Amino acid sequence: MAADRTAPGADTLAAPTVDVHAHVLLPEVEALVAGLPGLDEARALDARRNGPDALAVSGPMVRERVPRLTDPAVRLTAMDSQGVDIQLVSPSPSHYHYWADEESAEKVYRLANEATAAHCSAAPDRLRGLGLVPLQHPDHLVPALDHALGLGLAGVEISSHAPGRELSDPAYEPFWGRAAETGAVVFLHPFGCTLDERLDRWYLSNTVGQPTENAVALSHLIFSGVLDRHPALKVLAAHGGGYLPTHIGRSDHAWATRSDAGAGCAQPPSSYLRRLYFDSLVHDPYVLRELVRVAGAGRVLLGSDFPFDMGTEDPVAALRAARLSDADFHAVRGGNATALLRKD
């Protein structure tokens, strides 16, 4: 039997602590899109989805965290206090701007990629970066991915969907193929939930919306056969993959009993969890233990959502609370991410 290359090994004990879910704010991107047609409408939709109470809290929260989001020196000091050696830094999802036209979208991804690379260049031994691609313009995805990789970024960050397009859309096939070919990391991080105003109170737009969007997006990748066609694809799902890993039995049941559910993928949906990667940010040690059980300890990576308030200030302590075996703890703490981000 071939060795399980996703299982944690002894070398994980010496691996650095790696946080794969950390963000950077890029004011230059927002300056670029200011005044463009479509921005006001997009912001109005975001306001409706979140509701006034959430916006009243989020504004001051983000402003207080700007130094950690923009200044590499402040970021590194915070990492030291958390015991984090390396961060995989991705742009704030507020920079996706999937409403932008082709010309503007190209400017956005180029500037975002360049600004993220510049931020990480302040400490290249401790900061790795991810770029952006314009999901609303499928023909631009491969050039955008190549642009990010050409700058030394480890891959790109995407949302759970673009207007009118799910991740199962055939137009994305060249992108998935290129990502698999290059070994790029594709970080799946939703921004906004299509349940809209149903979630506009009590911050349900985030607490319910984010894990819902993760589950829907991953289900599209699984049931459509994207992971069958591109087995080398490195998709890393934020927020522990949302609701899907803990409710994957329902997906397996549908796949086995209904012809419509089983038509698109070759294996039971649960088997694909071991082809994906997940961050550890689930806010519950028992859920984290279950995620490790169903996905495998070699597929879960430390994540904090640095430095936002829906993250954790002490990701290592949150991981330790799951009471994993020593080997699994160190694999999640840094061994898995070190292998995933290795420059081959």
Automatic annotation (TrEMBL):
Domain Amidohydrolase-related: 18-342
Coiled coil region boundaries: none
Record bears the keyword Transmembrane helix: no
Keywords attached to this entry: Lyase
One of the Pfam families matching this protein, by short name: Amidohydro_2
SUPFAM superfamilies: Metallo-dependent hydrolases
InterPro entries assigned: ACMSD (IPR032465), Amidohydro-rel (IPR006680), Metal_Hydrolase (IPR032466)
Naturally occurring in which organism (per UniProt): Streptomyces tauricus
Protein name: Amidohydrolase
Organism phylogeny: Bacteria, Bacillati, Actinomycetota, Actinomycetes, Kitasatosporales
UniProt superkingdom: Bacteria
